[in-house]
Each structure stands twice: as structure tokens, then as C-alpha cells.
Amino acid sequence: MSPLNLPQNPFAISATFLPATSLPATSQTQTAELNPVTWWFVCQGSNLLVLPTEKKQAAAKATESWVVPQAVNAEALGLKPLRSQFLGHLSGQPCVAVEVAAESGLPAGMDFQYLRSLHGQLREDLFAIAARAVQIIEWDRTHQFCGHCATPTMQLPTERAKRCPNCNFRQYPQLSPAVIMLIYKGDELLLARAPRFRAGMYSVLAGFVEPGESLEETVAREVREEVGVEIKNIRYFGSQPWPFPKSLMIGFIAEYASGVITPDPVEIEEASWFQKDSLPPVPGELSIARKLIDWFVTHG
Ligand SMILES: [Zn+2]
């Protein structure tokens, strides 16, 4: 059975990956270390340790210039992990995420690369697992203490959660859901520029879900706040994990209803209607923003 996903969702977990959530990190790592072929997803923030693909490995795609290291244990790579989390098995091979200190030296021939820049340069299944790895390690790193009473937390043996031994408060990996929406009017679509975008680039609107909102309410509110336009016929498009650092993007398509574009002076530098055959530079193919735009150009 193939998973339901956007076409070419770059974060789609391969059917050969069996995720694990239920064993304590320490014993999982020990179990993994018994296997001579463990994949090590070594993280420093949003950077991943990779090594150049050897020519003799004959990568399936010419652009796959990096690979994730494999070893019997972390020591064999010359690493001293600060923390580790077992991720699951890829084709029966254990996958472990670890964090190493920023000051620790690099294993020979390896380098840290920004995860996002590895899209297309790393085997697809490894890229998708790496996206999980950096988020789970970040959660582990930032939940060492209880958010309620500041007691050091303990990893639960039965699920990916940390429990406070003092007040029993449990902390799970958290996501920040965000909606992203393409607004259209006939053959035109609404694109906007945020001040942080690279020069000349426009994209569809997006925004984080507030507590108490439905996704559809967020879509309508964000469009109203960012460009002063009312919309109708909000329809679900698809979703995509966005591990920069921990979002889930939920995509929608909606039709213009009324109003004149009035950009929010802080969040939006410029917004306009664009004919679908005359678009400005738009985001790269990694993003669901691009999937929405491509869909409208082809099917809208
Ligand atoms: Zn507590």
C-alpha cells in the first residue's frame, strides 16, 4: 500500500522505513550498535553530517552527491553523541539520530550541511528520515527539563515522550501547524512578497494556526490580515512536513470573493494578482508553495 501524499512530496517516508517510537533511547541505541550497518543521522541544529558519495557507489541519480554515514556504532565514526534517539528501521537497517557538540571535530571526509540544501543531493528516503531526525533531536534537546516545575525529565520507555518525575507532566514532540493557501480570481493568482524573501521572489500566503481556530478559519483570517481580501470556496489541497524547524504545512486553494489588495505593512512588502502565464520568480520545488502554484498553472 502506498502512502497518500502530494506528488513528489520530498518528505514522504518510504514504504521500506518502519518508524519506531516505543523503546527508550539508550537501549535502542545499544540495540542498534549490535547491528553492523546502522545509519547515523548526526545533527547539529538543522545541519546533518554527510559524506560525499563515492563514484563507485553509482548513485541512482547524478545529483545525489551526499550520503548519510553508516557504522557499527557512534565511536566508529569518531563521534561522542550528546544525546540519541532511535528512529526505526530502513529496509531492516537501524536508523539512529544523535546530536554532537558544536565543538566536536568532524570525522575524516565528512561535513555538516544544512538539511534544506541537501534536498535533491541526498537519497530521497534518507532525506525524509533526516527531516525527522533533526526535529526529534531538537525536541530531545529542548525538553530536558519539565516545562511546569523545571525538574529534569525522564524519557518514557513506551512512547516518544518525556515525563517529569516530580509532577508527572508529559512532553511530546510538538509541531507548529501552518496553513498555506493559493487564492485565485479567474486566471489570476494572488502572490505576495515578505521582506525576508530573496530579491524578486513572490509566493502564496501562509500563516500559523492560532489556538482555538479551525484550519479554514486560519486561512480566511490570514488572507484578511495580510492582504485585506475576503475569500470563498476554501478547499483542501494537501499537506507537507516542514522541518525548518518544526512545522506541518496544510495547503488550501480558495477563490477570491471581495475586497482590494491592501498589504499588511509589517508582514507583506508587496502583493498583487498575477496571470498564471506571467509569473514572477517563485519558491523552489521542495516547498508545497511551489506545488500549489504548479497545480494552478496546470489545472487552475
Ligand atoms: Zn514537573
How are the elements arranged and paired?
Blueprint (H helix, E strand, L loop, with lengths): L16 E3 L5 H10 L3 E7 L2 E6 L13 E2 L2 E2 L9 E10 L2 E8 L10 E4 L9 H19 L11 E2 L6 E2 L6 E2 L4 E10 L2 E6 L11 E4 L6 H13 L2 E13 L4 E12 L11 E6 L12 H12 L1
Parallel strand pairs: 2-7, 12-16
Antiparallel strand pairs: 1-6, 2-3, 2-5, 3-4, 3-8, 6-7, 9-10, 10-11, 12-13, 12-14, 13-17, 15-16
Helical run tally: 4
- The assembly state of the depicted protein chains is single chain
- The portion of residues assigned to helices is 10-25%
Strand content: 25-35%
Q: Which ligands appear in the coordinates?
A: zinc ion
Give the number of DSSP strands.
17
The number of domains is 2
Highest CATH level, the class of the largest domain: Alpha Beta
Task: Report low-confidence residues grouped into runs of 5 or more.
Answer: none
Q: Would you identify the CATH architecture of the largest domain?
A: Alpha-Beta Complex
Mean pLDDT: 89
Derived from helix and strand composition plus strand pairing, the structural class reads alpha+beta
- The termini sit apart by 30 Å
What do you see in this structure?
There is one protein chain. It is globular and about 60 Å long. The chain is an alpha+beta fold. The chain is built from four helices and 17 strands. Helix content is 18%, strand content 33%. A hairpin with a 6-residue loop joins strand 10 and strand 11. Strands 1, 2, 3, 4, 5, 6, 7 and 8 form an eight-stranded mixed sheet that branches. Strands 12, 13, 14, 15, 16 and 17 form a six-stranded mixed sheet that branches. The chain folds into two domains: 17-142, Nucleoside Triphosphate Pyrophosphohydrolase (Alpha-Beta Complex), CATH 3.90.79; 176-299, Alpha-Beta Complex (Nucleoside Triphosphate Pyrophosphohydrolase), CATH 3.90.79. Zinc ion (ZN) binds next to loops.
